[in-house]
């Protein structure tokens, strides 16, 4: 089962923001499955998505200060068409990434106790941000069941079908061998030559012109 939806995050100031609830609230209509994966792609080059501390906001403040020191606005950048924060935003986006893949179990994302989804807004005035959420999952996670051609089938049933197919193939091969064994012998020593004369294969090869 596949599910896809475009999410919109409200405009935020430059810095790191906990957006777990803002994302999940827009996925309330996501089908409930037992096992699945949720892929989130941020469609921008001046922001980022990452997983980190979801409790203490000072972690986000410290992270922003670190990136402001590491990738300063006043660097010697050629690409500054949209202001001093233009190129630094692209660098930070590449450093942190713009996508996440999260496991889903029984309709809930399986993040750690202290993990939350962060939006890294790297522009001073970034505006709203779009995320493409793609969800893939199955409703039955019983290990005794295989899904083949849309129909759930027990492993033992699949195993029996395979054994039956294997036996049929062996029977066909055995019949082919017996058929070859029962055929009358064919002499390979002589064959009709030109003008009706019988010549051996060795003689014909010996008389073959070297240049042919």
TrEMBL record:
- The lineage's top-level taxon is Bacteria
Family annotation (Gene3D superfamilies) = YjbQ-like
Region Disordered: which residues? 187-212
The record's keywords, sorted A to Z, are:
Plasmid
- What InterPro entries does this protein map onto? UPF0047_YjbQ-like, YjbQ-like_sf
Q: Which family does it belong to?
A: Belongs to the UPF0047 family.
The name this protein goes by in its record: 23.31 kD replication protein
What is the source species? Acetobacter estunensis
Instruction: State which gene encodes it.
Output: rep
């Amino acid at each position: 089962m596949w599910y896809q939806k475009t999410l919109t995050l409200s405009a935020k100031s430059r810095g790191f923001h906990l957006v777990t609830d803002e994302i999940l609230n827009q996925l309330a209509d996501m089908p409930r499955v037992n096992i699945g994966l949720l892929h989130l792609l941020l469609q921008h080059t001046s922001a980022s998505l990452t997983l980190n501390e979801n409790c203490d906001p000072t972690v986000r403040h410290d992270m922003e200060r670190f990136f402001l020191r590491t990738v300063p606005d006043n660097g010697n950048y050629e690409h500054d068409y949209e202001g001093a924060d233009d190129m630094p935003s692209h660098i930070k986006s590449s450093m942190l990434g713009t996508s996440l893949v999260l496991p889903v179990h029984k309709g809930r994302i399986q993040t750690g106790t202290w993990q939350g989804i962060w939006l890294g807004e790297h522009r001073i005035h970034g505006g709203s941000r779009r995320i493409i959420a793609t969800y893939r999952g199955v409703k039955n996670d019983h290990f005794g069941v295989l899904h083949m051609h849309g129909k759930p089938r027990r492993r033992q049933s699949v195993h029996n079908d395979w054994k039956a197919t294997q036996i049929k193939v062996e029977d066909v091969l055995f019949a082919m061998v017996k058929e070859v064994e029962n055929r009358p012998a064919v002499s390979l020593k002589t064959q009709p030559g030109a003008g009706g004369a019988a010549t051996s294969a060795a003689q014909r090869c010996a008389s073959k012109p070297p240049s042919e």
